[in-house]
Amino acid sequence: MSKFQPAGSHFIGGEYVEDLAGTPFDVIFPGTGETIAQLHAATPEIVSRAVASAKQAQSGWEAMTGTERGRVLRRAADIMRARNHELSVLETHDTGKPLQETLVADATSGADALEYFGGLAASLTGETIPLADGDMVFTIREALGVCVGIGAWNYPTQIACWKAAPALACGNAMVFKPSEMTPLSALKVAEILIEAGAPAGIFNVVQGMGEVGAQLVADDRVAKVSLTGSVPTGRKVYAAAAAGMKHVTMELGGKSPLVVFEDADIEDAVSGAILGNFYSSGQVCSNGTRVFVHRSIRESFLERLIDRLGNAVLGDPRDETTSFGPMVSEAQLAIVERYVEQGIEEGARLVTGGERLDRPGFWMPPTVFSDVTDRMTIAREEIFGPVMCVLDFDTEEEVMARANDTQFGLAAGVFTRDLARAHRVARGFEAGTCYINTYNDAPVEAPFGGVKLSGVGRENSKAAIEHYSQIKSIYLRLSPLEAPF
Ligand code: NDP
């Protein structure tokens, strides 16, 4: 087996664990279709052991000072940065994303989260609320307990860290289940946390498909579930968590609008559309896949877009000059191919791309449809691939109504030089994350998350603290206590 084969499928209680009784599955490098590792899904015993390990470690971790916990997280961030190249190579093999991307967007983003929440850990305090006669209430911000993280396959390192960093900063322990398509990098996060001084059991990783996630969510010892995934999975996980009245964070899918007004800087707007549709081969939840372009500039926008797409380098993802990689799997490629067929059948104009490349691996080139109308399937459903829909519009009022006419509400973007309009439009978007003259930035300092079907709760920023801690109010009476009898 390759150098990417881990010492065990799972990471529990500070060490690699294997259980050959679990269903075996292959880890495939999407650039060629080669198998790079073989793992085993967690059996119910393994899942239970991981939760027990987290439960046992959590109270000691919470009892440490925030400064001590923060130090561990910041050390982990430093280790991740020092190993960025090695981790990026692994991420590229796990996901197929080009090294050019993984070097700057995966372990680095994970390290940012560890550093940011490591820095916040020491400042998580309650407040004192004065009452009459010197009585008071003081509040304590407590950990929730054992948190479960369940990840999608597009940003495995980032998702693991975006969930683990705030959870651990607040004194929780975590059991993380990566997508079975990209199981390797979360194990590295677990290794690094141990090396940074985290107590064994604070961050555990178990592998497997949906049923492993479902077992974790149903476990009575679990206090919170944070899922990054699709809306259908979100519905199931939210419902299962509700049965145990568990806290949830849901980071789900989207079909986000990107509106380009006639006064926009066309080069910037084309850059935004490229970043919002083709980065990570379009496998990004917040992508602005409905690109509304003012009718008066549609042709010039399309012309520049096609010119610029000609510069994309579809090569070996391990080569740093490659700027566009494969889809994560044959199955995801088949989904995208089906959407392309539907787009053509429903009358959209295929401007470029649309046909899988005749080479090993799972390749769909950047694909653009124009003449897309609001009711077409490709304009309504999340495709999660490199497929951009260009729609025309005439007025701001019209485009806002159409942009918001979706059940999703993850992100939205606007390109215009008119500052007042930019603000008006951003405020009018029904979306959790909005962009003015940019697209898809996700710094750890800013809250990230969706409204409507796109999610519940926020990741990153100080807002995430609210989702990984709870407030206890303690009443203190100094004055004599009166009672009716
Ligand atoms: P899925 O919803 O298919 O899976 C997400 C995770 O949930 C996987 O680990 C999956 O396991 C697991 N899972 C599946 N069923 C259950 C269940 N019943 N109980 C518990 N866990 C379960 O999403 P994908 O992995 O296909 O990722 C793509 C989706 O994720 C897109 O819709 C995308 O928009 C969304 N996404 C959202 C982001 C955001 O921040 N808003 C960011 C990235 C992606 P397995 O697949 O291994 O069987």
UniProtKB/TrEMBL annotation:
It comes from Poseidonocella pacifica. The keyword rRNA processing does not apply. Keywords: Metal-binding, NAD, Oxidation, Oxidoreductase, Potassium. Residues 22-474 form the Aldehyde dehydrogenase domain. GO terms for molecular function: betaine-aldehyde dehydrogenase (NAD+) activity; metal ion binding. Its EC number is 1.2.1.8. Coiled coil: none annotated. This is Betaine-aldehyde dehydrogenase.
